[in-house]
Design a protein that fits this description.
mainly alpha; Farnesyl Diphosphate Synthase; two-stranded antiparallel sheet; globular
């Protein structure tokens, strides 16, 4: 069997790419905010998935570095604008872009990052560009639709589990699927294997987001990197909330409704977490996350390449599933 690069080797190559000056320097009012968010390293899951997938299918990791960087820039662009819409002060333990540089700079920095994402995505051999643009454009549109659904859900009490799962598929999962499919495209993988690796990403992403919902309410602030209960304060219809509401009796529904306008933040967080417990939402959320994780593993197993080549993705999926941050 051919030798594959380790995750650390792939990350080292990616960090070398991300560490150079990829953006212009002037006007500083535009690029200082961009460099701020890009310097606060996240988990690098998306570019790592792209590089791992490309390597797994026998493609050139060097060829994949620009698209991998594009995905990280695009992801961070969405975070900048999400933080503005969510009125979030902290991101990864640091002040958010709009908090530090102002609302207008945050909006404009995000716009610039979206353009740079396209720039780096298409810095590849010409034959790959149409397919990469096709999956990237589809993904970007779905992410924006998912964000609007998320905003709309804040005003509704009757969000169904199906609606919620579609929202997080668009808002979170499709980008993981996109990264994996992009890696497969760059490696010349078959259409069937591209489809299966995309499905793996979709289900892993759904599991990831539901776990994220869980950690926002029941994680540890020091590990999560943000205040616990932020989704509760924003009246977000998370999987915890949706399953809690749909399992609640009349009295509990009244309590959920009253919490929408509760001004005491600590009281609101404590009461909501208690409702998640007594309605069984906490347990259901853990169960759903695990169910989707197992579905992702099934898709990965069905990819028609040597089992040993898939092992790094199995290990990464397990690491993502077992995280506490």
């Amino acid at each position: 069997m051919r030798t594959m690069l380790t995750q650390q080797q792939l990350l080292t190559q990616f960090e070398a790419k991300a560490g150079v000056n990829n953006f212009r320097t002037t006007p500083s009012g535009l690029y200082n905010p961009v460099n701020h968010i890009m310097s606060i390293k996240g988990k690098r899951i998306r570019p790592l998935l792209l590089l791992m997938c490309c390597d797994m299918f026998g493609g050139s990791v060097e060829e994949a570095l620009n698209p991998a960087f594009a995905m990280e820039v695009f992801h961070n662009f969405t975070l900048v604008h999400d933080d503005i819409m969510d009125k979030a002060d902290i991101r990864r333990g640091f002040p958010t872009v709009h908090t530090l540089f102002g609302l207008n700079s945050g909006i404009l920095a995000g716009d610039a990052m979206l353009s740079y994402a396209y720039k780096f995505l298409t810095k590849v051999s010409p034959q790959y560009v149409p397919a990469l643009l096709d999956i990237f454009n589809k993904t970007a549109i779905e992410i924006f639709e998912g964000q609007q659904m998320d905003i709309d859900f804040e005003k509704r009490m009757d969000v169904t589990e199906e609606e919620y799962l579609k929202m997080i598929e668009f808002k979170t999962s499709v980008l993981l699927g996109c990264c994996l499919k992009a890696g497969a495209i760059l490696a010349g993988a078959s259409e069937e294997n591209q489809k299966l690796i995309y499905e793996f990403g979709l289900q892993l992403g759904l599991s990831f987001q539901i776990k994220d919902d869980y950690l926002d309410s029941f994680g540890e602030a020091a590990k999560v990197g943000k205040r616990i209960g932020g989704d509760i304060l924003m009246n977000k219809k998370t999987y915890l909330y949706v399953t809690g509401w749909n399992s609640a009796n009349k009295e509990q529904k009244e309590q959920f409704t009253a919490l929408l306008t509760e001004q005491d933040e600590e009281k609101k967080i404590a009461a909501a977490k208690n409702l998640f417990e007594v309605t069984g939402a906490r347990q259901q959320t853990n169960h759903k996350s695990n169910e989707l994780y197992l579905g992702a593993l099934d898709s990965l197993r069905n990819i028609s390449i040597d089992k040993e080549l898939k092992e790094p993705l199995f290990e990464l999926a397990e690491k993502i599933n077992n995280r506490e941050f």
